[in-house]
């Protein structure tokens, strides 16, 4: 049964990715079946209680600067991802300023946010916190679209970690700042109310599994070399 769900989930992701062409990994290369990380916390368990209290805490942060950042982090477009990671990277990242880095991130981000999380999402179909508690989020425009999309694991969180690791390959001197920003990108999801705390933690774990697969992909490595050369050139100019 689990295998059937995983295959169906992958076929759906493959159809979407074919239209977008935003992937490096194939079915054979992607860490597709990540259900080995285990199920989400059971209702009534201590870990579920932690999810509930973190959800309540997240609501208290929404009117703060951290809450504003969480709303901005909800946008997973490549342009926004590069913008929010620029400070941690130590250089402005954009399609115009760093086209090779842009191409790299644009093509790999859904290897983490979609491929690596889809099977687990479809297997557990966990209800998102805002739907469970019937409360508004800090990003209301996406509520209906995601209401019936599985909450566990968080694709945003997987994307944040994977992107931070790829950027750290380009600029290792800023790896600590990048890793922290990658974690914060995922933590924003329980603040805005779209994910349980445990969804985020599981998503961050899944995101860390993506880089080894990418490092074995020749197209990714070719583009990574171009991104490194671009960064080295821009660093000398500065």
Detailed description of the structure:
This protein is mainly α and 238 residues long. It has one domain (2-22, 43-237): Phosphatidic acid phosphatase type 2/haloperoxidase (Vanadium-containing Chloroperoxidase, domain 1, Up-down Bundle), CATH 1.20.144.10. Helix content is 68%, strand content 0%. The protein has twelve helices and no strands. It has helices spanning 2-20, 46-61, 65-73, 78-89, 99-124, 129-132, 143-146, 155-170, 175-192, 197-207, 210-215, 218-237. Residues 7-20 have low confidence and may be disordered.
Provide the descriptors you would attach to this structure in a database record.
238 residues, mainly alpha, Vanadium-containing Chloroperoxidase, domain 1, 12 helices, globular
List the helices and strands and how they pair.
Blueprint lengths: L1 H19 L25 H16 L3 H9 L4 H12 L9 H26 L4 H4 L10 H4 L8 H16 L4 H18 L4 H11 L2 H6 L2 H20 L1
Helix pairs in contact: 1-5, 3-9, 4-9, 5-8, 5-12, 8-9, 8-10, 9-10
CATH architecture call: Up-down Bundle
Number of distinct beta strands = 0
How far apart are the termini?
A: 56 Å
Q: What is the structural class?
A: mainly alpha
Q: Report the helical percentage.
A: 55-70%
Regions with little confidence, pLDDT below 50 for 5+ residues: 7-20
Shape: globular
Percentage of residues in DSSP E strands: under 5%
What is the residue-mean pLDDT, rounded to a whole number? 91
Provide the CATH top-level class. Mainly Alpha
Mind describing the biggest β-sheet? none
Q: State the helix count.
A: 12
H and E string? HHHHHHHHHHHH
Determine the CATH superfamily: Phosphatidic acid phosphatase type 2/haloperoxidase
Radius of gyration: 18 Å
The oligomeric state is single chain
How many domains? The number is 1
CATH topology: Vanadium-containing Chloroperoxidase, domain 1
């Amino acid at each position: 049964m689990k295998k059937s769900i995983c295959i169906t989930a992958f076929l759906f992701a493959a159809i979407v990715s074919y239209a977008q062409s935003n992937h490096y990994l194939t079915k054979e290369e992607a860490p597709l079946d990540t259900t080995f990380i285990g199920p989400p916390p059971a209702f009534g368990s201590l870990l579920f209680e932690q999810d509930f209290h973190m959800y309540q805490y997240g609501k208290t942060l929404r009117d703060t600067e951290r809450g504003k950042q969480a709303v901005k982090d909800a946008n997973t477009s490549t342009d926004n991802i590069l913008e929010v990671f620029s400070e941690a990277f130590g250089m402005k990242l954009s399609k115009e300023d760093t086209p090779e880095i842009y191409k790299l991130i644009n093509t790999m981000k859904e290897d983490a946010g979609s491929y690596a999380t889809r099977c687990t999402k479809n297997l557990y179909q966990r209800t998102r916190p805002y739907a469970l508690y019937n409360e508004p989020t800090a990003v209301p425009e996406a509520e209906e679209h995601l209401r019936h999309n599985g909450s566990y694991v968080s694709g945003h969180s997987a994307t944040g970690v994977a992107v931070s690791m790829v950027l750290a390959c380009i600029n290792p001197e800023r790896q600590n700042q990048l890793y922290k920003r990658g974690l914060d990108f995922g933590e924003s999801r329980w603040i805005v109310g779209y994910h349980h705390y445990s969804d985020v933690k599981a998503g961050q774990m899944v995101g860390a599994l993506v880089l080894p697969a990418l490092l074995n992909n020749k197209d990714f490595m070719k583009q990574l070399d171009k991104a490194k050369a671009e960064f080295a050139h821009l660093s000398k100019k500065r």
